[in-house]
Amino acid sequence: MKKYLIFSTLVILLFLFGCEEERALRLQPAPEFYQGRALLPNGQQIEMPESDRALMIELCQPDNAISTIPNGERRWLGTVTLTQPLTDVATSSTFPTATLFTIHNESYVQCQLDSITYVTKTTSLPESLSDVQYAADTYPDTAKIRFAEPHEYEHFAEEMKKPIGNEPYPERKGIEHTLFHITMPFNGQFELTLNSSEGEERLMIPIDASRHPYLSIGLGTEKSDDTSQYAIYTSPDQNDYQTVLRPKQAHMSQMFGAKAASQLPSVLVPGQRYPLYSFTYMKDGTANRQLVSLTYHQPDLLHGEELTKQIHATLSSERHALFHELALLGTESKDASFLQHVGTEEVDFLFHAIEQANATSHAGTPAPVPYLTLFQGVCAQTFDVSYDGNDVYVTNSKTGAHFKLLREDAIKWHNLFEGNS
């Protein structure tokens, strides 16, 4: 019964997520063509069954987005990523990354698609995550910061002496009193602003999917092959400091006079810039004073018409097409030799030609490659392809409805897909 209800909900998502319905084209959400993987708070990754993948598509419906979420600690349940292995564009964005969390025992989903962020509220959670909520990690809704203790300064200096990268290893030196520790918030990102007489530069520190609860951040220098530069070093556990933020104009001959901020609030107000430290560096015989500031940014939550517009614009361009000799068996067909991927221009033609096709009562003789599946966003549709002389017919594989291409489109079809004719 639950699976039926989920399917019933899915079939109405025809405009959202890039889905269209125009005559022959009746693309619908297709969780069977996705692979779903959830990252759990303990670092484990699990595969999600089709029913859970269908639910995730439902939970990230843009028309369910809310404008605000309440204050309070967030309990992270997991982050779900859906991929579409049947298409050959690995970097393509076809579905938002979905992060499930609770606030005061109420469940929410943060959906992230490129720069688009929105949140929906839900009473349903994927069955594969049903046990996670009892071991969920807790995060504050905003960032906290503190000065490092003396023993942590010493540890930072020792860790910075460890070799990282490739030989010859750069000689690194940590400026001990510039170390700060951040209690990481649930979402958002940090911005480091560097101001000097050479100009302003901004470096971003995103909060990644692994959601480490802490971040240590300190200033240092490194030298290799007679080249010296300053950089900012971070670590989630106060060890190694292998993540390095290097400004573009960081080369220098000498650094001196580094000073850390004398005071900072314990909680960082979102959007407010806080000075962390300043220092002087010599470059081409000139002394330059550098000021480094930190800003915590919470994500802007989109909702309503603006969200729907941006989602549709982003996903409607994610079009792919496959010709195939045998019927697809969900994602199990991803490595099948009978898949024939179609180029971008040909994909645009296929959508255009089928959009203009006219309904008819009959079809032709099955084509040598008898199936065509179109993908758009999280939606898909499979057609049976048939010919009658130069005429081209496409039949909705689910409904059995037949459509005949316009004459000029049929001619172009045969020219483009000669091997399939």
General description of the model:
The chain is mainly β. The chain is built from 6 helices and 30 strands. The strands form 5 sheets. Strands 3, 24, 25, 26, 27, 28, 29 and 30 form an 8-stranded antiparallel β-sheet that branches. Strands 4, 5, 6, 7, 8, 9, 10 and 11 form an 8-stranded antiparallel β-sheet that branches. Strands 12, 13, 14, 17, 18, 19 and 20 form a 7-stranded antiparallel β-sheet that branches. A hairpin with a 2-residue loop joins strand 17 (214-224) and strand 18 (227-235). Helix 1 packs across helix 2 (50-59) and helix 5 (344-355) runs antiparallel to helix 6 (407-416). It is elongated, with a radius of gyration of 27 Å. The two termini are 43 Å apart.
SSE blueprint and pairings:
Elements lengths: L1 H9 L10 E2 L2 E2 L1 E2 L5 E5 L5 E4 L1 H10 L5 E2 L7 E10 L13 E7 L2 E8 L2 E7 L14 E3 L4 E4 L2 H10 L11 E4 L5 E4 L5 E8 L2 E8 L7 E11 L2 E9 L7 E3 L5 E2 L1 E7 L12 E11 L2 E12 L6 H12 L3 E6 L14 E3 L2 H12 L2 E3 L4 E12 L2 E10 L2 E6 L5 E3 L2 H10 L5
Antiparallel strand pairs: 1-2, 3-28, 4-5, 4-7, 6-10, 7-8, 7-11, 8-9, 9-10, 12-14, 13-17, 14-17, 15-16, 15-23, 17-18, 18-19, 18-20, 21-22, 22-23, 24-25, 24-27, 26-30, 27-28, 28-29, 29-30
Helix pairs in contact: 1-2, 5-6
